[in-house]
Amino acid sequence: MRSAPRTAARRTTLPFYHQSFHNLQELRHNASLSNKVFVQRDYTEGTVCKFQTKFPSELDSRIERTLFEDTVKTLNNYYAEAEKIGGQSYLEGCLACATAYLIFLCMETRYEKVLKKISHYIQEQNEKIYAPRGLLITDPIERGMRVIEISIYEDRGSSGSSSGSSSTTCSSGR
Amino acid sequence: MKSREYKQIEPRALPASAPPAPAAGKEQAQGGRARRKWEVFPGNNRFYCDGRVMVARETGALPVTLGLVLVTSGCFFIFDCPFLVQHLTGCIPVIGGVLFAFVLASLLRTSFTDPGILPRATPEEAADIEKQIDNPGSSSSSSYRPPPRTKEVVINQQVVKLKYCFTCKIFRPPRTSHCSLCDNCVERFDHHCPWVGNCVGKRNYRFFYCFIVSLSFLTAFIFGCVSAHLALRSKDGKGLIFAVQESPASAVELVICFFSVWSILGLSGFHTYLVASNRTTNEDIKGSWSGKSGAEETGNPYSYNNVFKNCCAVLCGPMPPSLIDRRGFLPTEDAPLSTAVEIVEMPASKNDVNMVTTGRHGFHQFSRVRFNQEEKVLLRFIQRPRLPRARVDVANRRQVPPEPSSSGQGCAGRASWPFLSG
């Protein structure tokens, strides 16, 4: 029952009582990427960043519609906040213009701050809601803000010994 | 009990493509250099300073522009300013200096900034779009189907056609155009400017506007000051020829400024009109909005119908981020994590998996974060509590009928998950 950190390189027998994986390759022996769903942009309000809230049919059996819609709506709100043209953005723009835009080299813009918030939100959503359902949301910034990519994972060999051992592991972990 | 529950996968069982972890770990630590995304960028661009600076492959007339600005301003400061400070005022070099700094800074920012390039579609994304194009029946509700490879959207009660880009394999967002010189789709594409050696798009339009406005002020200022200089020298009946002979550089500056001020002033005026009506050069040349209806303002769906608001939106709007992540590292998905990552494992006293992966060398890149997220997803998914259905008893290799309450323990509120297969 060691809990000390160990490097993946050492392949000693582990006294852990739950499954331990040394790399992604091993994880993929037990679960594999089966499909990817893409949520496209909604351009009805112009060029502002907004995603469609239409529920993809491939996720019908994996997640509740409301959870998915909440995630997309929250993301849309974040992007609307980032792209809002208001007092703060004017101030930032005028200050930048007055300094010949050199200030952008040293300062983090409001958009970048909101992108960090979005990244944290997506990580949190993945951990709490999507990962237990075998789904993974990719941050849209990694796809050029064109799509929200949702990867769908499935058990490999549901009747095989690997998933059998994982189910007994679950039961013993309680 | 423990040996049965723990399953260690032998390296031999792994596919041939994955080398044994210890050897690969050493290779990765010593020799394998992680490549940055700019090194494999598919467009026609050149990158310097390890991806921090980018220009179009053909720099065009950028050296000419820089040369003209530097030579003219240099001659002005060296040959004209001393005389003018003596005879007029000391503010002249100060104003000239400020204008020169603005021109140079905005020129370099325009040339070296990502104009708003859209990264090309990943293979999965491209396949998904192809599928949608081939099966349009589910998405289109009206009887009229637009020609293939175009999509129609309604923006502000105006129908806008989105075209499919065969190079980037995406449907171009509104106002995006593919630059044939740079071989990239650029958001809010204005034009490809050979004088700055780069496309002008969403991210660098304000720098470009600042450049041409400050350049027109600088050109007009130098023209005025040099004229005053020559006029003062040729006073008292000495004549213009005498003045030119005394200060030949001034004559050169005068000629350069005279020929450039008209075109630059004209360009500034044109772009001021574009900014005030929230249009791009591309749209104006194609007549996208002005040809269709009589009143120009109502034709453009992106305009706020207010000059001040349009100017603020275009010039003082939020600065969008670069989408191409030039300095990010390429993901190495098939390689084992090896010595670059420590896996901290804690006793699984709760049902949730506590697995934290940290980059040892402060190796926090976007692709690494996503890689670790994928691990977490897979682990959580594999070790999720199963629904109360038939389970396989490994020891006896038989199906065990479900126990009504056991699987619900430690799964706070997860008792009713009809979506998961057991």
Automatic annotation (TrEMBL), chain A:
Keyword Membrane: yes
GO biological process: protein targeting to membrane
Domain Golgin subfamily A member 7/ERF4: 37-149
Compositional bias ranges of the Low complexity kind: 158-174
Record's subcellular location: Golgi apparatus membrane
Membrane topology: Lipid-anchor
Region (Disordered): 155-174
TM region positions: none
Keywords: Membrane
GO cellular component terms listed in the entry, alphabetical order: Golgi membrane; palmitoyltransferase complex
Highest taxon in the source lineage: Eukaryota
Pfam families: Erf4 (PF10256)
Family in the record: Belongs to the ERF4 family.
Name this polypeptide is given: Golgin subfamily A member 7/ERF4 domain-containing protein
Biological source species: Denticeps clupeoides (denticle herring)
